[in-house]
């Protein structure tokens, strides 16, 4: 079968800066063939614009009839970036059977921030026995909450053993407000209420973002006559249907990085490697072992929050081509600091807004003395106005002053307190800040040329004028400061790669050791103690800027760095070569001697015989997994069941404590006929 007659697969990756597209065919060798690839800027105000730009370019390059595309698969870093940058919709958290003190556990209070929380009596015990439920307080609060939040998260005590109270709260909220509700038992079967509540809260925040992404993609595909199933990559690298992802957007955190791992393995054939994927906002580092990515058994950690989402054991760092460039405070010879916040590069802002940007930068250059606010501009992201619900008076006043044309921050802010207000608008995803980034530095040095280099140079000139602890300018020329920024990015990339390797080896203080080793490697006077380190496997460098930023990696990490030919679309390629994989769990407990309780899905049943209870649990999880596999987008799932028993021996007699039954269904996604 030739590539021309084979089904065509379209992969899309919507990142923080770029949207990538790749057209792939199963024909053309063992690994198939990339027929065309393209990029377009991610347009956060209307994601369909960036998607259409990338996909239209791919279709034009390949000369392909859109009707020949039989499967569309998408990965995204939007959810990951939102959590790293502290963004997301305002949601209300409903805690059933918990006390206010529980908010202090697992970072839940920090994640909640200023979002509202409602406590209700209820919940269950470890065996699923119910306490008295009282939702009157929730019902009374719903009229006000429904007008000020974008969704709800409901978490009940031991809901994984009996979800009845979460279901009651979910039904009440939907009836009274019509807003989306995430119930914790839908996301995880693990114990640990506060962390489950945290996961549920983050899921609820992400729903509107992922919903907009899916809706934009579906609308574009329909407009182009592409009638094919739409899949989304999950954080463990598996594919699920778009409808599935819409309900559980938290599972798409690390979607882009997981897809990149699948793509890295596919492109290089390497079974053992450290994969480092650098984007505009983050660098994501993971380990390939024997051809498979390591999974994190404790759940994915993103933006400092440990979730209950099963995902690749990926460490995400706020380090990328569009990272904010700042100076170390209070040092005589201050270091360059990068991230974790993403800025709109000045080169990009200049390309998009022209004189509105350059006039302000030139005005600041003419000033006699540099200012902390130099080279910074604010602009609205263009998201729907309803997402601005719940702003404080100060936030609303400042938001009104910011429009669709960038405004210089030194004109916008009149006090330091307003800077915190601006940062809150940025964290809500309502405002972008433009400023000097490594991408600008690359434009200044002629190593990147896709945006406006003249604007980048103005930004570099302003940054070079900043003063060190002795009152001297930190660099003589825009080129000099740009070289320092790019060198810093390569050095920090080596540090995060080594930090990941040390952490995977179980070493404490991984970040400190990695920093010290890289610092000694680049220091012209390494000191009395000579230290060196070498990875036991190569690095696979992914991302459009990997050839630039990773060229100097080998001497810092002690091994080769492989940058594949299609590294710039690794995520999009990984999105179309993966498989659907879903799971279902059941637990069998013994609340009293001779009584075996099966909790599976949304049902709780009792049996008088252990074997009958186990058999029922296996039947349940097989059926649930099969149903989820169909919902996730495959008609050819193979199901494997595994059971784990906890038992004890008392006076020579076996005593049943608990059983955990898991079904895993996997298969290739269905394609259009």
Give a description of the structure.
The protein has 673 residues and is α/β, with parallel strands linked by helices. It has 21 helices and 29 strands. The strands form 7 sheets. A 6-stranded mixed sheet has the order 3-2-1-4-9-10, sandwiched between helices. Strands 11, 12, 13, 16, 23 and 24 form a 6-stranded mixed sheet that branches. Helix 1 crosses helix 6, helix 4 runs parallel beside helix 5 (164-177) and helix 11 packs across helix 13. It starts with 7 loop residues before the first strand and ends in a 6-residue tail after the last strand.
The overall pLDDT average reads 88
The biggest sheet, with number of strands, parallel, antiparallel or mixed sense and barrel status, is:
6 strands, mixed
- The best one-word shape is globular
From the N-terminal CA to the C-terminal CA, the straight-line distance is 17 Å
Helical fraction equals: 25-40%
Strand order of the largest sheet: 3-2-1-4-9-10
Strand content: 15-25%
> Rg from C-alpha positions?
26 Å
Secondary structure tally, helices: 21
Enumerate the spans where pLDDT stays under 50 for 5 or more consecutive residues: none
DSSP strand tally: 29
Derived from helix and strand composition plus strand pairing, the structural class reads: alpha/beta
